Amino acid sequence: MSQVKFGEGKTILLAMPDWFLYHSVKQQLELFGFRVIGIPFTGKFKYKNLADRTINFLRKVFFNDRKYKPYLKYRDTGQGITKAVEELNEIVDYCLMFRADYYPLDIVKKIKEKSKVLVGYQWDGLDRFPGIKDLIPEFDRFFVFDPSDLNFPSVQSASNFYLNSHDPHVEKDIDVYYLGNYVRSRINKLEKLSDYLKNIHSNSVIKVHSDKEKIQKKYGDRSFELTKNYVSYEENLDLVNRSRIMVDFLHDVHKGLSFRVFEAIGNDKKLILDNPEIKKYEFYNPSNFFLLQGDNYEGLKEFINSPYEPLPEDIKHKYSFENWIRYVLDIEPYQKIDLPKS
Prior knowledge:
The chain has helices spanning 22-31, 50-63, 68-77, 79-87, 105-113, 184-199, 213-219, 233-241, 259-266, 300-305, 313-318, 321-329, and strands at 11-15, 35-38, 92-98, 115-122, 141-144, 156-157, 174-181, 204-209, 225-227, 243-248, 270-273, 289-291. By secondary structure, it is of the alpha/beta class. The chain has two domains: 11-41 and 78-163 and 320-329, Rossmann fold (3-Layer(aba) Sandwich), CATH 3.40.50; 174-311, Rossmann fold (3-Layer(aba) Sandwich). A six-stranded parallel sheet has the order 2-1-3-4-5-6. Strands 9-8-7-10-11-12 form a six-stranded parallel sheet, with helices on both faces. The longest helix is centred in the middle third of the chain and has 16 residues, at 184-199. The protein is globular and about 60 Å long. The relative contact order is 0.12.
């Protein structure tokens, strides 16, 4: 990736979760010449009392209202963001917001007042966090990664992206690698895959993170590794570099391609996945993507043992963070990132 200073002389307000990609995205923006002002939100949240927990449960179950918990999160952890926005004494060139549904409408409005261009990107489906739908009209440009969300008014298409982290000199001592948080709908798939990989004597690392005691008791003796320890994005990238093949299992609330797909592209890795939407994308190559269908592992051993087939450079660059940020901020030249029809 070139480090052209196309952001030189520009200031960008960066609003996103502090536990995922934040530091890497901020660093990349600074390498491109932007002055970055960060207003990230924290992933650490616990209900203050039983009343808050009960009210949220009742509103969610009986009224299908999923807005109360985000309200509580910001009430309890967002004071620093409010203060930083109110004390900002300049008009910034851009504000880029990932998962803007965390930020209350009044704060988004204040951010808009202090930004020449307000850009949003939702890396989750709109229906998973429906509070975002009320905020979209505030944005100058708003992007979604799930093709089925393109029917919503005033949104544009953008996939996820990869950051420049590939190190071709690292020894590839891991055949198949997976890291993810515990999700009930994925766990049986992961266990079956892990069992299969052990049976064919593949040198694989399958890690599932959960700090919940009941999950530890239930799954602590399975063929995959269940860890209480949080693995940072940087540690994850080290394991990615050591791997030949990655794994990605679909979250059942959306059809969009996850970050793992693009990490695989950016790091020249093959990928085992179960999202049939992959076949609609221009970079799909059955030599690099093994589409699991149920418990059918026919051909997987051969896939594991076969080499990666490099992508054309222009297609690979299209899904880089450099092209992505140029595209969403409308800084030419860039390649437009379209999504396939749902």
